[in-house]
Amino acid sequence: MFALQKGRRKVGRTSKRSFSLKVKMIILISFLIVGIFIIFGLFLHSFISTTIEDQIAKRALSVSQSIANMPSIREAFELENPENVIQDIVQPIQKSIGAEFIVVGNKKGIRYSHPHPERIGKQMVGGDNVRALKKGESYISKREGSLGLSIRGKTPIRNQDEAIIGVVSVGFLNEEVQNIIQQQIRSVWLTLFGIILVGIFGAIAIAIYLKKLLSNMEPEEISQILLQREAILQSTHEGIIAVDKQGKIMMMNVAAQNVLFNQELESSQYIGRSASEFLPHTDLLHVLETGERHFNKEMVLGDAIVLTNRTPIFHQQSIIGAVFTFRKKTELENITKELSQIKQYSNAQRAQTHEFSNKLYTILGLLQLGKREEAITYIKQENKTQLEFSRFLLKNVADPMFQGLLQGKLNQSNELGIKMTIHPDSQLNTIFTGEKQKAFLTTAGNLIENAIESVKHEAKSKRKVAILFTDIGEDVIVEVDDSGSGVAPDDINYIFEQGYTTKDGENRGIGLALSKHVLNRVGGNILVEEGELGGACFIMIMPKDGGKSYGQEDTCSYY
Fold first, then answer.
1. pTM for this model (two decimals)
2. How many other CB atoms are there within 10 angstroms of residue 434's CB atom?
3. What confidence score (pLDDT) does residue 464 get?
């Protein structure tokens, strides 16, 4: 199984080494946090300054309006020395609101009150009384006065006839306002500085976590590993598909795409899609659920027969995905074909040897008993049977490969005590080549082998297999009938599906699926029905297009 390894890997290190990923992340995130909070702090500074100045200005204007509307102030203007009354009225108000000054002046701008009594009776300074005295407006201004630069609220004083008789000016020194602003801003900057420190510690924590998540590798190392992995995956001849724990495809190499689609696709056409859409019978979901590994399982993908491996991927004892690899069986066909032929030849020779040994012991027994005539008759009878079968094959079967297959299966049947017969009207003058010959021999061999398997455990008197083949018409037809238990009606729809079997043991459920697949590729088909012997009857149909036909005179030329 695959396991993700942790730890630093030395991959193409250069002699020069820049800052590590962790240091870079800490620096970059810290700069980002500091930059953001400096901009935010400047914005707050401007906002707080404007807000405080605006609040103080509105407060000055509100107080000036209140004083201007006081009846006692209006009445004082009618006195001979109004400053004596007005000064006593405004002084307590000035102290209570914390204003720097409250100045009341007449229409000519002569002061009737001032924080410094010695300046009473003198001209008001600032030159900003025009709007109040001439236009009767209440407003805010910022001017340099006798006490310094100040924020002022000015309101005209009107008598009972609404005539303007004076002006009230309430002011706060700009210096004092800025002190208030600085106190507020200082607390804001201290708070922001604390948040920046927390952000820097957070950046360190994030950098350490991400570094650990990346198996302590640097970006250059990850990039080089990815390039190497991609080169390896795309250069291998085996198809490789990786899925996540939900069974969605994360990677598919070129070899896999060529097998499944006969072309290369854009990654967007398969990445993130469920593997069951392309691999419906691979048991990948079972691997993800159980963690079991499967090796060298034969199945059909696309138009190819492949050998597959399914392996889960573990990370920290948990399954995080699986890898599905496969290779075309056709790449191993030459070796497989040779081994298969050797195995068939070996089985045939073993069966013949066993049968011949039994016959020799029978003849020896007859001779020891002095029954010479019976021994001669037995020898002639056996010789006649073999010659008749051989002559039948030479006369009625043109393809020497099919002749050898039938001869081998006959010997195998004799060894197992199975009566295998070939219908006397059977005739096959067509010889297939290439893919068609391979499909024909594979399917015929599988059908006969299945028939032998289905009857070998029956009573000896019921072990029967009957074969009929003909190429009359446009198709070659091969029927294999047996006396076994047959195929249940409920199983007929599933017997040609890969992995479906009614037999015991591993690596079953492949023969019929493989046979149907290779036949379909060359335009053939397999049918199943109830046989005359009481078991199943499988019928193989293959078009003769592309095959060579030989007459009976030419058939024997192969021997």
1. 0.43
2. 9
3. 92
